[in-house]
Amino acid sequence: MTDVLARDLARARNPAVAARRAHRRRAAEARFRAASVAGTAVALLTLVVLLVALVGQGLDGLRATRVALDVAFDAATVDPDGTGDPAVIAKADFNALVKEALRARFPDVTTRQDRKRLNGLVSSGALYELRDMLLDDPGVIGTTQRVWLPASDDVDQFAKGHIDRAASEAERRVSDQEIAWLDALEADEALQTRFSRIFFTAGDSREPELAGIRGALVGSLLTMAVTAIIAFPLGVATAIYLEEFAPRNRWTDLIEVNINNLAAVPSIVFGLLGLAIFLNVVGLPRSAPLVGGLVLALMSLPVIIIAGRAALTAVPPSIREAARGVGASPLQVVAHHVLPLAMPGILTGTIIAMARALGETAPLLMIGMVAFVVDVPTGPMDAATVLPVQIYLWADSPERAFVGKTAAAIVVLLGFLITMNGVAVYLRRRFEVKW
Amino acid sequence: MVAITVPVAAPTAAGGVVKVAARGVDVFYGAKQALVAVDLDIAEHQVTALIGPSGCGKSTFLRCLNRMNDTIEGCRVTGSITLDGQDLYARTIDVVQVRSRVGMVFQKPNPFPKSVYDNVAYGPRIHGLARDRAELDAIVETSLKLASLWSEVKDRLGEPGTSLSGGQQQRLCIARAIAVSPEVILMDEPCSALDPIATAHIEELIDELKTNFTIAIVTHNMQQAARVSQYTAFFHLGRLVEFGDTAAVFTNPRETMTQDYITGRFG
Fold first, then answer.
1. Distance from CA of B263 to the nearest CA of A (A)
2. Which residue of B has its CA nearest to A329?
3. B108 touches chain A (CB under 8 A)
4. CA torsion A143→A144→A149→A155, rounded to 10°?
5. How high is the pLDDT of residue B15?
6. Quick check: B162 contacting A, CB < 8 Å?
């Protein structure tokens, strides 16, 4: 017994053994540190690659090609009776004006097929720009103006260098004839690729050159607003009730278990719930941000409640006792002391839930928000879609020109997310109390 | 240690008025009984010390006096406790009202994470004790002066209460309790987290406060009980073992258990 003890003590106190042990420990720590640095470096590198790729492609999506044409605003076509009535002007055949201008620019194009191709250089959205121009200033009727009109998406891709001139004609979407026209326009300085506001002002479109993010952005904003307005107060109130006022009994236990389970329910199930209740029973309109917001609020509630309860529990009991000790009522204890101290934590939970809701598409599938919606919604009852759905729709489109739009939309979504997080961080700073 | 008789000395014998009277108080935490049939009178404008080993029920008893035990899950109080003859556990009583009449100072200083001023002003604000800012300022100043903290903090009323030293924080908590003009102040080991100098400060303060307030203090420190109190109650295992004039309890206790405890033989 004593021999064993003496042997162990001798071994433990042997400087050579201790040095070996120290060496092993230091080596293990160094390995761990190296692994951590390597992991962080890989993560950072991936992030940088992602952002550079997204921003690069996104900037490409923000630029659009335009063609300058001398458009003759022939009074006979636009306003034959000379009424000057906007209703009459709006119904005029602006397509004919565009075709006429193209024919005037390339008079040697005669065959029907070539004419059709020539007309295809300019986007089908050009006529709306001409219409808006005339409605703004009817004075141009009867004159000839040099107008920059949006080019079609193939021309746009060609001008941006995404279509290889050297490839054989059959393998590219722009024919040799079209390239010749474009070169002629370019020589006249009538072809230009520059930043375009369309991406931020237009709703979705089948034509990539006319498609914009505005509809989805407004839809996301409206949906998030509805979600926040419903989920935040309801979630915080529930957390406060369960944590501060509710008795501990079988019922509250049951409620607690259910809330915890709801937080883990796949989001599409909430979509089904929304379809069954908000659309079929209540009769709210399909595809509406109001319904989307309600569904996402239901989905966010459990997360907000759980985070809220955790934040409330973290407030030291001594603060509650102190407030009670000076005669604060239960409501005053919560409103004046516990809630302000728990606010930073509650906000963190809320923002996590909201960020998840912002990126959600599955529950919206069930209530018709995963849809091609052209008009920009003006209120929570209008048909709308949201940013992640828009990204999915564009990514799914065959036109090459949607690649840039998709990247730009992703950047917008990330920007939305960062803004939301920024607001949360700011609010948290404001509520944070130094001890 | 079994079959303890419960002696109730009437403090009124010393010429005082009974402020709080407890009769047959039993407290249960779930199935566990923490206090057994406690009869105790607390004299007005006197300091009553509650002493005894850990877990003997003295803090439990103290917390019964302003119904602080209500908030503990599974806690049940039977018997009667009266404040100026009014039953604190009557069905019609407003608990919040009770707590504004019977203030409390806790073991660990627990100022709100607000400014010194707001800490003291909080009670008067929620009870509407001040009609305007000037009155509130006056209440804060008086309370801080009564808690002998005014000279130290009068230039830093806007600083957070938590930035003060431990002893100052505890006096701030006392000022906070005083600010709502309670009739009784309960102190639950107010000096156990403080150094001897801060402790001496608080003890002096307690002595001054008894002219305006009735004080009940729980302490583990025998010398402290002897120094600050006029009456001493000795609790053991949930029972009141001995109660009487402090001088008598410390110099000539009736029970051997009290003798053993105050001389440090157990507990």
1. 33
2. B96
3. yes
4. 160
5. 53
6. yes
Q: Residue A322 is nearest to which of B112, B179, B180, comparing CB atoms?
A: B112
Ranges of residues in chain A whose predicted pLDDT is under 50: none
Quick check: B115 and B160 in contact, CB under 8 A? yes
Predicted local confidence at residue A137, as pLDDT: 84
Give the CA diameter of chain A.
Answer: 121
DSSP-derived pairing of the beta strands B231-236 and B239-245 = antiparallel
Q: Is A325's Cβ below 8 Å from some Cβ in B?
A: yes
Instruction: Check residue A434 and give its pLDDT.
Output: 59
What digits encode the pLDDT tens for the residues A186-223? 888 888 888 888 889 888 988 888 899 999 999 999 99
> Residues A369, A278: contact at Cβ < 8 Å?
no
Q: Are A358 and A390 in contact (CB under 8 A)?
A: no
Strand order in the sheet with B239-245: B102-105, B184-188, B214-218, B47-51, B231-236, B239-245
Alpha-carbon span A237 to A100, nearest angstrom? 66
Q: Which CATH number fits domain B11-109+185-262: 3.30.230.10, 3.40.50.300, 3.40.190.10, 1.10.10.60?
A: 3.40.50.300
pLDDT of residue A35: 97
DSSP state of A369: -
Q: How far is A318 from chain B (nearest CA, A)?
A: 6
- The span from the CA of A62 to the CA of A201, in Å, is 12
CA gap B253, B247 in Å, rounded = 9
Q: Residue A203 in contact with residue A213, Cβ under 8 Å?
A: no
Is A327 in the B-facing interface, judged by CB distances under 8 Å? yes
d(CA B48, CA B11): 10
Average pLDDT (B232-246) is 92
CA distance to A200, A213, A406, per residue, from A412 (Å): 10, 9, 10
**What tokens does B28 get?**
């249960």
- In this predicted structure, what is the pLDDT of residue B11? 44
CB B39 within 8 A of CB B22: yes
**Four-residue CA torsion sign, B70, B72, B73, B79:** negative
Contact A152, A182 (CB under 8 A): no
Cβ pairs bridging A and B (under 8 Å): 66
- Cβ neighbours of B106 in A, within 8 Å: 318, 321-322, 325
Please answer yes or no on whether B104 and A318 come within 8 Å at the CB atom: no
Find the CB nearest B180 among A326, A433, A435: A326
CA distance linking residue B190 with residue B187, whole number of Å: 6
Enter the ipTM: 0.86
Listed residue (A425, A292, A288, A421) closest to A360, CA to CA: A292
- Mean pLDDT to the nearest integer, B125-147: 91
On chain A, the residues whose CB falls within 8 A of the CB of B125 are none
DSSP H or E stretch at residue B185: strand B184-188
Q: Which pair of structure tokens corresponds to residue B60?
A: 């439990």
Cβ of B100 within 8 Å of Cβ of A326? The answer is yes
Of B71, B162, B173, the CB nearest to A324: B71
Asked if the C-beta of B69 comes within 8 angstroms of chain A's C-beta atoms, the answer is no
Tally of CB atoms within 10 A around B211: 8
Percent helix, percent strand, percent coil in chain B, to nearest 5: 40, 25, 35
Q: Which amino acid is at B267?
A: G
Q: Mean pLDDT over residues B193-213, rounded? A: 89
pLDDT value at position B185? 94
Superfamily the domain A214-431 falls into: MetI-like (1.10.3720.10)
A358: Cα separation from own chain's centroid: 8
> CB contact, 8 Å: A434 with chain B?
yes
